[in-house]
């Protein structure tokens, strides 16, 4: 059976973590996924922390620190960049390009992966896409000059990664940067409303427990 998720607000997550530590539960922290895992009676449990809770790579939490993070959402033809401090959005920008082929509804990059060389209209779409990635990376460079980011929250389809990191204007971070946090949620076309929806999702903690476990029996939820 698939495990079930219980979404928790930041104060509830703090209470759960405190209770687990007081009970000396052997917690394992994954910095990349910003998540604790542990076992109870041979079953696996996990707790994804809200992005607003700071932790170093060893899992040492600092509840007083206000987390500053970048959000980068990329899909074919559009991208969103946002700067957040704790639960405040300090800056945001949406980028778009003429990358999607009419009628087929498929991006030019995906089309080339399957069909090969392109015609004049296709080259225009590719040039527009390249310009979008340059503009996105220019914006990112500016934000990195202005802020010291604790995390880089990131969602980008795999087929677009070479175009983001191989753009003429380079991004200010490497694709293997340890601060990257891949958002564990499906991304729709990234406009400002979608970005705010992602922020609300990241502000919540997610306790994942086995389907057969009754949450009322968990001491850290009482």
UniProtKB/TrEMBL annotation:
GO BP, one annotated term: ERAD pathway
**Domain VLRF1 as annotated: residue spans:** 65-205
Its Gene Ontology cellular component terms are: cytoplasm
Cite the InterPro entries for this sequence.
ANKZ1/VMS1, VLRF1/Vms1
Alphabetically sorted, this entry's keywords are: ANK repeat, Coiled coil, Cytoplasm, Endonuclease, Hydrolase, Nuclease, Repeat
Q: Which domain of life is it from?
A: Bacteria
Instruction: Report what the protein is called.
Output: VLRF1 domain-containing protein
Organism source for this protein?
Answer: Roseivirga spongicola
Question: What lineage is on file?
Answer: Bacteria, Pseudomonadati, Bacteroidota, Cytophagia, Cytophagales
């Amino acid at each position: 059976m698939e495990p079930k998720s219980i979404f928790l607000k930041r104060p509830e997550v703090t209470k759960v973590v405190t209770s687990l530590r007081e009970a000396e539960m052997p917690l394992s922290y994954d910095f990349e996924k910003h998540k604790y895992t542990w076992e109870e009676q041979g079953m696996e449990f996990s707790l994804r922390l809200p992005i607003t809770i700071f932790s170093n790579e060893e899992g040492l939490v600092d509840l007083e620190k206000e987390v500053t993070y970048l959000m980068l959402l990329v899909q074919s033809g559009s991208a969103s960049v946002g700067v957040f401090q704790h639960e405040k959005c300090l800056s945001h920008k949406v980028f778009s390009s003429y990358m999607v082929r009419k009628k087929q509804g498929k991006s030019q990059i995906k089309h080339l992966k399957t069909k090969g060389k392109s015609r004049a209209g296709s080259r225009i779409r590719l040039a527009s896409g390249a310009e979008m990635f340059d503009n996105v990376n220019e914006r990112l460079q500016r934000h990195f000059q202005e802020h010291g980011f604790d995390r880089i929250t990131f969602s980008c389809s795999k087929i677009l990664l070479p175009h983001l990191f191989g753009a003429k204007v380079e991004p200010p971070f490497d694709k293997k940067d340890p601060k990257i946090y891949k958002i564990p949620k499906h991304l729709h076309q990234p406009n400002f409303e979608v970005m705010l929806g992602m922020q609300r999702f990241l502000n919540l903690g997610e306790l994942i427990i086995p389907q057969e476990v009754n949450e009322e029996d968990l001491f850290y939820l009482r």
